[in-house]
Every structure is written in C-alpha cells, then in structure tokens.
TrEMBL record:
Cross-referenced Gene3D superfamilies: 2.60.40.3230
Keyword Signal carried by entry: yes
Signal peptide location: 1-20
Organism superkingdom: Bacteria
Organism for this UniProt entry: Pseudomonas frederiksbergensis
CDD domains according to UniProt: DUF1425 (cd09030)
Keywords: Signal
Pfam families: DUF1425 (PF07233)
Protein name: DUF1425 domain-containing protein
Length: 123
C-alpha cells in the first residue's frame, strides 16, 4: 500500500513537470522569443499592419508586479522565407512602472519585411 502511495505521488510530480505544447504557428506567442529570463511582464495582443509599404507592429505589455522594472527587447525582421532581411538590431531598454500597461511600437527598417520575431529578456 505504501509503495502505491509513493508511486502515485511520484507520477503526479512528473505530470506537473510536463513541457507545455509549442505555440500555434502564426499566433502572438509564436512571435516572442524569451532570451535568458523574462519575469513579471505579460505580453498581450499584437497588432500588425502595413503602412506606406513598411510592416508596423504594436505589442501590448503589462507589468504584473507591484514594483518598477526594466526589460530589454529587440525586433528581428523576417522575409517570406523566414530569414532576417535587415541588420540585427541592438537591445533596447524599456522601463515599466508598477502594474503599468503600455504598447511597444515598431516599424520595419526595410519594405521587404513580411514578418517579425520579438526577442525579450529581463535583467
């Protein structure tokens, strides 16, 4: 009886450690790559449009903690084949106040960009 109880507890722990399924292709979650760690920032809806031939993006962000924090981000602009079409951007800093919700705007540097990837991290 005791062995069954221990086995059931071990199985429950292993089930809790299961890897979540990957995000669906084309979804907002599939466009975000977390580099290092990314704590207390929720990424919400993404709006994508083409203005004057350039891809534009607005990403909703929300600081879920009750303290001010800093996050780092950069966009990677991709072409139809999924490969970068512009030079790699440098990391940019964004300060978020406690419980602040904001939008992160970006414009592709070249008109041949058709998709993007957002890379994020916190210190």
């Amino acid at each position: 009886m005791r062995f069954k109880l221990i086995a059931a507890a071990a199985l429950a722990l292993l089930a809790g450690c299961a890897t979540p399924p990957p995000p669906a292709p084309g979804s907002a979650a599939s466009k975000v790559v977390v580099m290092n760690k990314f704590n207390n920032v929720a990424i919400g809806a993404m709006r994508v449009a083409r203005e004057n031939g350039f891809l534009t993006v607005k990403v909703a962000l929300n600081n879920t903690s009750h303290t001010n924090m800093t996050m780092y981000y950069r966009f990677v602009w991709l072409g139809d084949d999924g490969f970068p079409v512009a030079d790699e951007e440098s990391w940019k800093t964004l300060n978020l106040y406690a419980a602040q919700a904001t939008f992160l705007p970006a414009i592709a540097p070249v008109p041949k960009a058709t998709d993007f990837r957002l890379e994020v991290k916190t210190p």
